[in-house]
Structures are given as C-alpha cells and as structure tokens.
Fold each of these.
Amino acid sequence: MSRIAQRFSQLKAQGRTALIPFVTAGDPNPEVTVPLMHAMVEAGADLIELGVPFSDPMADGPVIQRASERALGHHVRLRDVLDMVKAFRDKDADTPVILMGYLNPLEIMGYETFAKAASEAGVDGVLTVDLPPEEASELRTALRPAKLDPIFLLSPTSTAERIQRICDAASGFVYYVSVKGITGAASLDTDAVSAKLKEIRQSTDLPIGVGFGIKDAASAKAVGAMADAVIVGSALVNRVEEHANEPERIAPAVSELLSGMRAALDE
Amino acid sequence: MPTSDNTDFTAMPDERGHFGRYGGMFVSETLMEPLEELRRAYEKYMVDDQFLAELYADLQDYVGRPSPIYHAERWSRELGGAQLYLKREDLNHTGAHKVNNTIGQALLAKRMGKTRIIAETGAGQHGVATATVAARLGLECVVYMGSVDVARQEANVYRMRLLGAKVVPVESGSKTLKDALNEAMRDWVTNIDNTFYIIGTVAGPHPYPAMVRDFQAVIGREARAQMAQKLNRLPDALVACVGGGSNAIGLFYPFLNDPDVAIYGVEAAGDGLETGRHAAPLCAGKPGVLHGNRTYLMEDADGQIIETHSISAGLDYPGVGPEHAWLRDTGRAQYVAVTDDEALAAFHILTRTEGIIPALESSHALAYAAKLAPTMEKDQIILINLSGRGDKDMHTVAAKEGIEI
C-alpha cells in the first residue's frame, strides 16, 4: 500500500478528514521550505502538496504565480525540489508528499529519470495540472514502477464519462477542483460541490480531495463534511507572501491558519 | 525533395489533435469539456453550407478577399534570380492576415451562443482584428496584452479601445505575449459558460491549431488558383514568416502535397541565433509542453520558458504551432531564421523598390526570399506571404534611425 493510501485508510478508521496544505517549493527562498513542511505537519497537515515552480502557471491565480516567480528568482529547479523532499524525509517518514506543477519541467528531465529521482527522494504522488489522462499514458508508465501515485483533477465541467476515465487512471486520491476558475479565485458553492461529489463517488472508491476556494476554518469545515480531504493553497501562500521579507514569521503565520482549520475539521 | 509522393501531409492532426508527437491537449481538466464542445461545433460548422456561405461572404465583402498576388518585378530584377510574387494579405481589412481567423471564430462563437469574446495579443494585430469583428457582431470583447507590449504598441491599444474592446494590461511573468495568453486562458476557465476564446495563432490546445489553420488556409487556396490562372503553374518555393505560424500554415497547407513546391518558414533570429536573444524555437529550441500543446519551445535546461527577442512583436513568442514542429521533423518544410537587421533591410528595400511598406513580421520572409532568389533561375517563382502592412511599425523603424514620431 502506498504511503498516500495508508494515510487515507488510517484517517478513515479514525473518522477524520485529511488536511492537505499546498506551498510552493522555494518560496520565498529555498531555506524556508523544509522547516515550513515540518511546521505544517505539526499544525495538523496529513499530507503535503509541494508546488514545483514554473514560469507559466496557466491554471494558477496571481498569488501562486507570484510564489513561482519568487522561487524562480532563486533558480529553484525540479532537482532542488526533490532535494527538499529528501531533506524533509530525514525527519518525517510518514507524511505523504505530492508534487504539484506543470508538465514541462518533468518532460525536460525525462519521465523515467524524474520518476526514479522522485521516488528516491521520498515523493509519493505527482499531480501535473496541464496533463489530462488522455495525454498521460507515458508519464503513468514511468510512475508505476517507481510506485508514485498519479493524481488527477476533476472539475465541475467533467462529464460522467470523463469522471470514469479519470478515476480509472488515478491512484492515491482524486482532486476535485470545486470552482470553474483558477487557484485563489471565487468562493465555492457547497451545494454544487456536494452534488458533484456524489456523482464522483459512483465512479470510484478512491478518496476525494477538494480544493480551490477554501480560505478559512469555516470553508474548510463546510467542505470537510463531504470530502475525504480538504486542500488549501492560495490562503497559505498569501501568508507566505505577507512575510516574504521576514521569513522567520512564515511558519507561525501558516501554522496559525492551518491549526484553525484542523480544529474546525475535528470538531 | 526529402518527401515521398504518397505521404498525405494534409491528413493531420489525429482525432485528439496530434501532429505526430506534437500538438495534443495539455490543459487543466476544467478546460477539457469546453474544448470538446468547441471541437464539436467547429467540426459541425466547417461542413455546414450556411455557415460557410456566411464566412465566404464576409471574407469577400468585409475583408476584401481575394487578396491579389503581385509580381514584384523591379525587386526581382535587382536580385537577378527567381521572380518574386507577393500574396497581399497586407491589403486585408485591419491590415493583416489575422482577420481571416477572427471572422471565422467569431461566427462560430455566435453559433455557439457565446456573448463574450476574449483574445490575447502581442503587437496588437490579432487584438485589433478581434475587436473589429466583435464590434461588428455586437459582442463584448476583452483583450489581454502584456504591459510591455501595451507600452510599445500604444496606437493599436487605442484602436482596440475605439472599437469598444477592453484592453487588460498583463503584469505577470515577462509581461509579453506568452503572459497575455496565460491570462486569457485564466479568464476563459473562469468564464467558460458565456465566453469564447479567439486564439490568434495555430498554437494552443486542440482544436485551435487545426481550426485556425483551416480559417487561414484561404490564403493558400486562393494563391494556388491565382498562380494557375495567371501563370498556369505552381510556384517553385513558398516563403512565410513564423511566429506562432498562422500566416505561414495558411499559405503552406494547400501546397503540402505538391512535392515540387519547396517550403520555407522564417523565424526571428533577433540579434542572431548565436546570441541567444532571438525567437526561433524551430531553429534553436527544443520540444516541450506549453500553452496546451507539445511543440518546439525556447526554454532553459530546467524546462522554464525563457524570454524571447525580436524587433517584431508579432514574432516575439517562445513557442510555435505544433504543425510546424511536425513539418520540420518530417522535412516537408524547412525552417530558417533572419536577424532584426536583415529584416529591417528588407523592409526598406521593398518600400523603396515596390512602394509597399511591409510589416516587420513579413519583412523576415522578404529577407529570406532575397537570399533565396539569386540562387534560383530567372524563370522560377518564389511566392512570399506579405502577411501584414507596416503602418503599425513606423515608430519602431523610426526609432532605429533615431527619429521619434
């Protein structure tokens, strides 16, 4: 069983909803990331999504785009991100780490080289935003022997046929994008999310994570009531940005928001 | 020719938009169904007699098609080789080939019941062509433009605003065309219910590369018929500039299965390929994935997209249409590059010898043709796509001479 599957099955046994924070690796500088990952686990994170910086993050809003720009300002490369995961694993062997980003850096490294290096570093899953399952067979083939879970997105526009195809291609969990839009944009409509999650559950037994539009404890709690995992990105990256010039304050600020969400989810 | 006679070069892409290993649909899940919806509409209407009748009527009466082909006799004589013919896309309404595509996509948008049009633009030509058709059809129009381009293309920004479009300066990334495209994609994914995204070139996710090609192929179809009528033969070579590559594929496509017609796409070598300051992914880039398709890109060793440079804003783009990537690899078309200085020299020569002021983009094609012509016989023919007129470039050319207008 993969580390991701294991974590979800533990949580299920405990009747808890997973909390998955997203931060961009190397934002605002490379030294911040590994301690921040540990702090997030301390504050209640069950899995971590680590953003791989990309020059053209087409599916992200301005908050996460600026995070990428700050990291790229320090020349943070995919290899550096893998090194961060490796360093994180020195002290944490249990918390699953998912890389989230765009295809081109993986493509340039080569899928097999990437899969091997990521697996060795202790990565558990890979979510490539601009890679729908139709184009993903080569990457999936490379990820399989490395025991990395391919995570795919589902969205409000996914048809029943697509939902089935995507769930069949995924392992670990599936990621439901709760709104039509980019990261950090509109507020979510919980009734609509609930209806779509019911539809998705007919196609899969995989855990479902919900992201986009979760900003605070209240929205985390609302989504947590119907999802297996709550994914929060821009709200955290906002805090990173606020303290970009005083990096020692980043971990406390991020932890404060996360632990509030954790408490709301566990109520 | 490196090609065998029985290959059908017009049979691409496959049903998922692949040109060999290039093209495809590399977008986030939210856009997959809207792209499917677009593909279905495009496939339906491209064989719909009423739609096509409306399209051709607009191309004739609104755009002014067919555009002539013109024998540049004096220039040909000076070069002392092949005869140079120009396909006069510069004479189209709005001054470039871009409108062939925006008319088509806007009619499609109307058929699909979309009320809002968005577009990206670099130099502003595609933005103007989009704002123009949106004004005519009474559709809301938002154009994304890098803030660097907004500053260097003020006149086109004003034209778009006169036409009723909202021009949104994009401050992210390198603040140029690629960032405008990112921003337009973000708008689209947020407003997919009522919005149609008119992409201006043969890049982006399927069906855009095929659809934009099909709207631009009117250039090559006309040129073929005009050559036959005027000279009773096909040209020996085609030359067109390639940024994203829509004017080039528009000219090339109807000739792809004519093995005796040599095809040259001309990229922007900027300060020179050896300087790294250029916009020539086919000549000096590597394959990768950006903006929804796999193609040749300007990228660094880590897969980050790098900034490009060309004197011509319309060629200043780090990617290129996937069909060009495929034509390059198959050898059916050859891709070359000319520098800013060579393009400027060609700009002045055509202006002085033929009384035609070309766009700086098109000047790249002219510069390569000027190299090619003397290597060919006097009874041979080079057909160049004069994709746009140079009015928009007055300030850039003047600035090169130290004059401010």
Amino acid sequence: MKRYSFLELAKNAFSAHQNWGRQWRSPEPKAEYDVVIVGAGGHGLATAYYLASEHGIRNVAVIEKGWLGGGNTGRNTTIVRSNYLWEESAALYNHAIGLWQNLSQELNYNVMYSARGVLMLAHTVHDVQSAQRHIHANRLAGVQNEWLTPEQAKDYCPPLNIEKNIRYPVMGAALQRVGGTARHDAVAWGYARGADALGVDIIQNCAVTGIRRNQNGSIEGVETAKGYIKAKKVGVVAAGHTSVVMDMAGVRLPLESFPLQALVSEPVKPAFPCVVMSNTIHAYISQSDKGELVIGAGTDQFVSYSQAGGIHITNHTIDAICELFPQFRRMRMLRNWGGIVDTTPDRSPILSKTPVPGLFVNCGWGTGGFKATPGSGHVFAHTIAKDEPHPINAPFTIDRFRTGRLIDEAAAAAVAH
Amino acid sequence: MSQPFRTEKGGRIDRGEELTFTFDGEEFHGHKGDTLASALLANGVHLVGRSFKYHRPRGILSSGSEEPNALVGIYRNGDQTPNLRATQIELYDGLEAISQNRFPSLGFDVGAVNDLLSPLFPAGFYYKTFMWPKSFWDRVYEPIIRSAAGLGKPPRTPDQDTYANQFAHCDVLVAGSGPSGLAAALAAAETGARVILCDEQAECGGSLLSESNASIDGKDPANWVHETVARLSSMENVTLLPRTTAFGYFAHNFVALAERVTDHLAEPDSKLPRERLWQVRAKEVVIAAGAIERPMVFPENDRPGIMLADAGRTYLNRYGVKVGHKVLVATACDTAWQAAFDLADHGVEVVAIVDVRETPPDNLIAIAEARGIRVEAGCVVTGTLGRKRIKSALLGRLMTSGQVASGGQIDCDALLMSGGWTPTVSLYSQSRGKVVWAPEKGAFLPGISVQKERSTGASKAVYGLQACLEDGYAAGEAAATAASGKTATITYSSAYGGEAGSGGILGALPHDRNASRVKAFVDYQNDVTAKDVKLAVREGMHSIEHIKRYTTTGMATDQGRLSNMNALEIASGTLDKPVTDVGLTTFRQPYTPTTFGLFAGISRGDFFDAVRKTASHEWVVQHGGVFEDVSQWKRAWYFPKPGEDMHAAVERECRTVRESVGLFDASTLGKIEVVGPDAAEFLERMYTNPWKKLAPGRCRYGLLLNDAGFIVDDGVIGRLAEDRFHVTTTTGGAPNVLATMEDYLQTEWSDLNVWLTSTTEQYSVAAVQGPKAREFIAPFIEGIDLSADAFPHMSVKEGTFCGVPCRLFRISFTGELGFEINVSRRYGEMMWETLATEIEKRGGTPYGTETMHVLRAEKGYIIVGQDTDGTVTPYDAGMGWAIGKKKFDFVGKRGLARTDLVADGRKQFVGLLTKDPKIRLEEGAQITTSENPATGTAAEGHVTSSYYSAALERTIALAIVKNGHAREGQTLYVPMPEGSIPVEVTGTVFYDKEGAQLNV
Ligand SMILES: Cc1cc2nc3c(=O)[nH]c(=O)nc-3n(C[C@H](O)[C@H](O)[C@H](O)COP(=O)(O)OP(=O)(O)OC[C@H]3O[C@@H](n4cnc5c(N)ncnc54)[C@H](O)[C@@H]3O)c2cc1C
C-alpha cells in the first residue's frame, strides 16, 4: 500500500496524479475463506480490517450487495459521541471514541474526525433530570460529559436561540467535548483500503442470497450472486437488512427496520461550530466541512424498507431547527434522503455469537451506529476470531431479549443518535 | 440608460419600465421582465461568481434553475439570502445583489491562489493529507478548509417573513408548462377534470417563450401561449401556479410544490407569505419538465462568456439581450445552430459554428452560408483564453485517427455551446420509477410507471414542437380519463417549424493539449474536471456513486443536472464498461433547493407545538403562578407569594396541604372511557391488577406494563357501572396508552366488545387534598353522601358540583384525605374559580406540580418516567401487590417471567436519607458502595427523586438500588465532584407509614 502524505501528493502532482494506485482491488471471489463478512458498511469493513490487522486472519472476504459504504454508512449524519447512560453502552462507545482519536493515522486515511463537541439540549424539567443523570453516570464511568447553563450553551454555540419566549425554551445542555463528527465515506474507504492491503477481498455488487449449514447445523458457506462461497465463519453486518440475511440461516432476531431521513442545506460559509441535538423537539444539526448544514431527526413511524420517507418528517425536522435557529429559516434544503435502520427493543446493538455455530451477528445499531464503527469492528473481530465475545461486547448478546437483561438506552432517555 | 448589450427591439421585457439595481454595490439598470442574469448580461456583465474550490472566475452559464455559477446573495430587510440563482431572480426596482465566495472582491479574489496550487488539489486530496501533526486537524487544517469552503454567507438575523401551507387535491397535476405541459393541461381541463398546472418560471410557456422560428396555428408561439393561458385561467376547474416548483414526489401521488409569492416584488404586501407550500394529492400526474442542455467538456470551458447555446438564444429572444458582440458557437447538435442564426439575425457577429460532427445537416449549412457564417465541421474547441471573460478559443480538427490537429485560434467575446439535451427525469425518478438507458438518444428516459404518472414531451426525449404538442395533448387526455373517467374532444393546435434536431455528445471532447495539465470542467460549481473523474476511476472508484462522492461531481447545488451525464460517460469510457454498468445516481427531493421556512410553515413560537391549557390557566396567570411544560401541557408548577422563591413557596404549599387543605389542577392526567360488555375483561388483560371483581362505585390503582414486563404507565381506574370504567393515565403517557389499548383491541383481542374514548379534554379535574378536604368540598357537592362510611377511600360516585353534573373520586396522591372532582370542561373555569376563591378564605392553598411531587414522594408513590425508566418491574418498584396473582394473563406477564426479571440483584426502589439532613441529593446522582469509587466502577443505582420535606423537616430521596429491598439500614455513597455524600437506605414511605391520614 502506497502511503498517503502531503509529500506524496506533491510528488504525484509532478506526474499529474497519473500514478496513484487503486485504493482497493475488485477481486473475483475465491472458493473458500476463513471468514466471510456479509455487508461492506463501515462496521463490516472495520471488522475485516481488525481480523486481518489484530488477529492475523487474512483469508477474509467482505461481500456486499451494492457498493462498499453505500448503505447507512454513506447516508448518516456522522455524529460521534459516547455519553450513553448505561455502563455497558458507555464502555462500548467510549472504546470507539478511543479508536477515533488515531484512526486517520492508523488507516493513513484522513477520516476527518472533528471533536467539535456535541451539545444535547434540555427543554423541560424532565429533560434536565435525564441529562443530569447521564452526566453523573458518565462521570463515574469516566466518560466526558458536562452540564451547561443556557448562557454557557449559547457561548459554546452562538447561533442557539435561548430566548425564554419560545415554545420550549432551552433550560440547559449536556456537552461532550470529545464528541463531534467524522467523514463517513472516508471511514468506509479508509477501512476498505486498509483491509484490502492486508489481503482481504472486498467483493462488491454481489448479494448474499443464502447461508448454508452442515448436518450439525454449523456454518458451511454462503450463496451469492457470484456463486457459492465456502466459509468457516460468517459474520453478518447488514444493518437494515440483517433480519433478512439472518433468516437465511434460520435465525430470527428481534429487529424492526425503519426509514430514517436526513437532509442538508446548500453550502454556506461557517455558520455553526458544533453539533446540537434536541430530543424533546426532535432535531439535530451540524455543519459539514463543505459548508452544508447537516440535519436529521427521528425515524419514520412505520416499518419499511423504502429509503424514502414522508414530507411530514422533513417538515417537523426543519420546524424544530428553525425554532432553535430562526436565522436559518431562509436557508434552503439541497438534498433529502433516507436509510433503513435496524432497531432492537432496547435500542442497543447486538454484537454476538448466534445459536448457529460459526455464525456471528453485528446489528441493531439503529439510528446511531456510525459513531461506534471502529469500536464495533474491533470487538466484533475479536468475537469472530476467538469464538467468544470481547469483554466490552459480552453484554450485547441476542440472548438478552430472552432473559430480559436489556441495556435500555431508549427507556433511559429516549435518546437517538 | 445604457444597456450596451440590449437588442433594439423584441423580447418579453417591458422596455417602458426601467428598474435600477445594484450588483456588488455598483448600480445598473434593467427592465421589468428581466431576470438578474439577463439584466447583468444586458450591461455586459458576465463575471458573476467564483467557483467552490479553485475560485475561478465564472459567468452565467444557463438561463434556468440548473445554473451552477451565477449564485448570488440578495439583500433585503437588513439581511441576506445566500446562493440564489441570478437566472431565477426576477428583477425589481432597488434589488441589491452581491457576489459570493470571494475575498476581498469578485475581480480580485485571494482564494484564486487555489487555482495555481490546483495540481496539489486533485479529487479527494483531503483524504490523503492533513494527518500530520495530528492535533493540527482540529486546530489548523479544518478551520482553514471550512472558511475556504461554503458558498454564500449565511443569514444572521431571524427571518421576519411568513410562509403558508396549502393542501390540495386534483385529478391531474401537470408539472411544467412548455408546449407539452400546456397541451396536457388544456386537454385534461377540457374534460372538466380538476387540473393544477405549475411551472417554476414566472411565466408559463417554457421554451415557447424563446422560440423564434416556429408558429402554432399560424400564430407566433408566444401568442399561442397567451391564448392558452387565458383559456386555462378562465376555467374554474384549473389552478394555474407560475413561480411554483414541483420539488418532491412522494408515495401515493403526493407531490409537494413550492410557490414563490413575494420574492419578485419590490414592495411586497406584508400580509403575504414569502412562499407557499402546496401539498397536492393528485389522482394522476403529468411530468412535463422538459430537457436541459448539456455543457461540452473541453479545456477551459468555464470562462465567463461561455454559455449554453439555448441560454444564449433565450437571452436574445426572451429578454432582448445579446450575450456578446462576437460569438462563437460550438456544438454537437442541431439546436445550437438556430441560436447562431437568431444572433446573426440580430446583427451579432457569429464568428463561426464549430460542430463536432463530420457532416452536420446540409440544410443548416446552407442557412449558415446564406448568413455568411463560417462553419467548421468535424471540429472542436480545445481551449480558451481570457481571464475574466473569454477572449478567444483554440480550435482543433478531428482526424480519422482519433487524434486532434490544431485548428487555429479564433477571437470571440462569447462562446455558446451545446452537447445536446438531457431529459429531466428527476420527478419520475423521485416517484421511484427506474430510468432506462436509451442508447440511440444517449439519455436515461422514464421507464415503467410505479405511481400514477406519465412523462410527456422533452422529459421523455420527445423533441420537435409538433411532436411535443401532440404528446402533451395525448398525455393530458389520458391522465384526465384515468383520473375522472371523463373525455372531451378538443381541437389540437398544429405547429409549423421548431423541428427536432439531431446530434449530441456525452463526455469529454478530444483535444491536442496536455490532458494532465488542462482543466475541462464536468461539474462547474464543485470544480470537478474530466481528470478528476478519471483519477477516481484509477483509484478504484468504479460506481458512479463512489465517483460522485470521491470527486463531488453532481453534489453541487444543481444536484448534477448539468454534470451527471458527462461524468457518467467519462467514467464509462475510462472503465471501458457500458454506461449502464456504472449506474446513475438516484434523484432525490428536492428538485431544486427549497427554503427551510417553506417546510416549517407557520410552525413557530406557539404554533410550533400545540399549547394545551387547563381551565385554571388564566386564574393561575393572574395569581402569579409559575408554569412548567409537561408534554404539550402548561401545568402550574408552584404559586409563589410576594417575596417567596420556589423553595419557600413549595414548602408553604406542602405544609398547608398536610395541615389544612390544598387545591390542585389534575386535568392534564389522561382519561379514557372504557365501555362495553367486555370492559372489565379488557382491563383485566391490559393491566396487572384484577378488575372483574371491582364493584361499581369503587376505584383501584392500575399498573400498566409493556410486553417486556416493565412499568410504562399507571393511574387510578374507577368503575362507574358494570360495563363502564373511567381510566386515568399519566399526563405524558395518555396518547400512548390509548394507542396501545387500541392496538391490542384491534389486532389481538378483536373478540372483545369494548369501546375506547379519550376524555382527557372533556373533563376538568380539581384535586382537593388535606385533612380538611371533606368539609371544604361539602358545601358544593350534592347527591353524594361524603361520609367516610358511605364514601370510603377509593370510591367514585356521580353527583353535582354547584349544580352541574360531576364525577367525584375519593382518591389521594398526597397521602391525605383527598377528592378529585371531574366536571365537564365547559364548567372548568367555574369550578376552579369557585374552589380557588374559597380555599384562600379557609386557610388552604392552591398548589402546583412541585408540591404534588414532594407530597407523593413523602408517601413513596412512584412517578412513572421519573422513578421508573422503562427498566423497572412492579416487583422492583415494591409493587408486587399490584399484580393479580390468579390472573390468567395480562400484558407483560410473559416478559415478567424471564430469568433476568426474576433474578437476584435487580435494582429496586428504596428510600434514601442523607446522613446530613440538610443535604439535598441531586436527582440522577449515582450510588456506590465505596466512598471513593474508582473511575469505571459500576453504579449500584441512582437517585430518582429528591426533595426537601417540610413535614419531616429534612431532605428525602427515592432511588433505585441494586438489591435495595434487602439493604435497608445500610450506608451507601453518592459520589459528587465535591466528594461523596453518605446516605442510608430506607423504606420508601417517609410519612404516615400506616396510612392513617387516608382513611379519615
Ligand atoms: C439518515 C441516517 C442518519 C444517521 N445518523 C447517525 C449519526 O449521526 N451518528 C451515528 O452514530 N449513526 C447514525 N446513523 C446510523 C448509522 O448510519 C448506522 O448505524 C451505521 O452506519 C451502520 O453501519 P453498518 O456498517 O452496520 O451498516 P451499513 O453501512 O448499512 O452496511 C450494511 C451493508 O450490508 C449490505 N447488505 C445488506 N444485505 C446484504 C446481502 N444480502 N448481501 C450482501 N450485502 C448486504 C448493505 O448493502 C450495506 O452496504 C444514521 C443512519 C441514517 C440512515
């Protein structure tokens, strides 16, 4: 792999950039792999990368029905934070935060992780209680999170409207300074390039259509659009379509898939310094490096696989943004899109072995898995390689829905993203 | 006034009305009917903007909404709106426009240094650098990138304008009013069908407004437009919407339109909205969105003065503006020739027509020769010169070998180009239709309809005036018949002239220059060149989706309308794969950028979310009460007397209730009337408690779980009759409880004969609580014996309050003797005022939610959502008693049996007393066994409620603690930044443990 650097760019400028190599190959699938990962989103690619880099398992294929990174990884609004309530979640997301710090350097690909701070607004007494609870829990868990008064929040984010005469005035905010954003495509591409360089085959435009099990019920391989591929182990990381893929192995999962929409404005000069989220009035916003305001909200109310939602969601998302930032009412929406997110009953992911020997699953990230990409890939690779979970993902089993040992982030605060 | 590039005559502008406007502070003149772009061109101004990345000088490229270069800010009312297209801004007197993305000025922009450094900035360069030193990303690189990026400056002040919202239904919605759209609208309207016709431009007519070489029914096309529009306007079944963009096509033929109402007016009526959102449900949709011309990709194809040929023709014929004095026309198709002829006919020197094709049609060559225009066939432009305006162009001759031989240089001050036409399939694609590649047309066309829509005219590559009219009529008729079953016979107009041309090219043109050094732009605004697309392919980006994201081609504010097809062809050529293998990105709403305010509509301030007020609201306001927001409700929080802060007020209110009597507005609690022969059975299945044996006239506390077995709601339920229950829920939970009940009733238990009716807003509820509650309400109540024996705790009876019917509950959320009086909402004010006036006289007090919280905490009553968080079972909450042990089933019963829910070590509901009675714990604070827990220690639980208790004269708290029920008496710690606070675990009832106060 040719290393990227400014010097390399300058050198290539002299040869008019004719000599850059491929970031990844487009190989034909081999007959057999040690591990097949289904789904080349950020999580699948990161898993493959860490299998190769940390566990020396390089005979790996990542099989993708469309284009790598074209699923939710390439559709999300890239908020990164780790101030979740429960110790289990905080540990998982904080593990990711740790990896984000050096990810550009590790992958030699600028993923533009930008710790601009994530401000989560409180508008009611109940919000304040919930935010305080998070802050106390996070302090004990060693996760950064602090309380700001409305005035401090405005200092941190000058465009914020903290007038008392709005429908739901801001009563304060929780701030995580290490939170922020990253460049979604770069994360997928950086992991793809890194994994490819270590020998991982990324096979695009090749849907997995079946999962074969042997007489003992163990994994034998996958049927794909490019034929049958043998595999000792299979890891399914297919986000909104995970339940469909797992069904091929006869495993039912407690997942529901919903459309989640997002939108961007036309690009403007710097107007917004951080990330602001409000769960009560349902909206969040940041500004991309390109200058677009990146805006989102909650999922559509109905389960669906259609990547387009209704206009009422857009209306409510934008009216919330305009309520907090009335100066943006004259901005214009450039693009609106949706992705299909897989949600679990407790709104925490599943990173787990399955009842089928050799079959592993990483899903249920719902509306907020981008931030976890490095951490998720890291512990999932461990789980596949060692056939047992990493301590960090040990609580995130499928079985918890049977036993009731839930990690209920939704109930705790109804927090999205 | 001098407008040096204005024609002598012609065009649709009003030469009698001169308008003054400024651009970057300089004053210019134009006419009514001009766009900002046409007015600038009339004044010879081509340089209007700077590109995104290289800050290259850019001119007006098009005449429509696809404009990528001429983006300006418009000043109005002390603030500016960025990124508006000069080609769409209608000129008004006093208009103030400013250029963007340049510093210090448009003419001299320091950012232009990027253009010199561009060899360092190929596609995706930022992924490869800015990684060292690490800390520089946040502090140095990113801030620099950010300030360089972005186009216009964001607005800074709150928008003063209003926006309106209109819902509409119609039989046929026609999007686009060119020849096909007008014909379709007319054909549909004549059947009597309800028609909406919208067009993003100020005037209907589309291409007909700039047609010079055709006639319809022997008339000038513009006259035909005029007559057709007049006919349509006269019909009651037709709604004509100019300045209205169909921007989003959603499910079930739901189309969203954005109407610009006042932006074009110099002095808008302040009562008018700035824009109006039309949410249209159409039985049938006719997409008549036309086609747009494609730029040609040749080196330096971006200089000011280089423009699409059809735009040049439009400026001439529609706006009476010559785009230059010496114009070069470069084309790959016939239509641009007509632009050259029209210019020549207006006395503009056309220096040459350069056609890529070896043999352009003879008839065109003949017309050119007749006008003395030099024709170069088999020839391309290989470069241009001129910094802020094109000065000359380099020509190249295509050789049979595929090479290009130099063809000399030619002076010009404008260059019109045409790579052919791209049908606008955006709306079709948004309707979830799959476009189909038509190789013979070199275009993606609408395929099978997924929704009830049809495309017509140029949007499906039907070209030529007569063909477009015919296709439009047919589409309109068919749509109307499909929608309403009606037909009509109308006489088709017939056109002469305006024939379809042939030709067109995709991708980059060949040239004889150093390919790796020159810039041939594919995406103008984002500065993506042919080289960039090739680089992306070389680096392994093989799908258009990757190429788009890596190079940013097609991601500018025109959403790739101008660039997609050329980028696709370049990628397909580089990959040596058919275009269809590279793929086309899907089109998403909005069709063109759409104002946030339009979506937000009237939703601001109090309209942002319904404000729900109870009958006591005005009284509370007048008496200085403070409110809190609880879901949509405004609830009285506390009632400070002069000089009291919240703490003092709450302490007094608490004391008064415990000692005398208090009045509380409980109207916001959800109320559901559950009626029917199976009402008791229904509640039996919903709630954990048993209901069948509850006698009419009695109440019971009900606990509602989700199917996972966790508490989600609670409330007192009164049985009014065998078949009638009055169910109460929490304030915030009301809608969900009703929805859940309906869900079960309709999907799981359709065997039950039960009706559910929300009555939350039908009743006003006054809670009267305190030892003197009975004597206090007695004078107002008739028809109910209030004595303890006749009306014990947990009873409900119907009687009258001040003569109006009431439902009286004897229940308590304070631990004191308590009543809740329900009267019809229309008597709510009467009830509240009567009681509130009286209570002060009797030494009682109104009290708010805070006091209610304290009093219930003293009694250890939970508040769902505060003391529980969706992870608490009835057993955890110490409310195992609420579970009907003999019941066959209830929602959550199975969940409750899961191993973890019955395991040891669950977090349980307890009381906490701080060792220091003065310290009030923070709600949400964590609880540990160790006084100095190490970071990462798992918490034993957390504080859920914490107050100062006037009755106990100390602080109290409730908490969820691991194994809490068994830990009574133990000391635990609440670690705070200032140090740990020792607490003792206690029972949850702090006051009147025996409940003596309740049963008086
Ligand atoms: C609009 C939106 C906004 C969001 N905002 C945020 C945010 O701000 N912060 C945050 O942390 N998270 C956010 N998320 C969530 C986040 O995007 C996801 O949790 C995360 O990207 C999931 O990554 P993944 O790799 O698991 O999934 P994906 O990127 O979706 O990858 C799954 C892949 O599996 C492939 N696949 C599916 N079926 C098959 C098959 N049969 N065969 C082969 N391949 C298959 C898919 O094509 C896809 O590429 C958002 C999501 C959306 C939709």
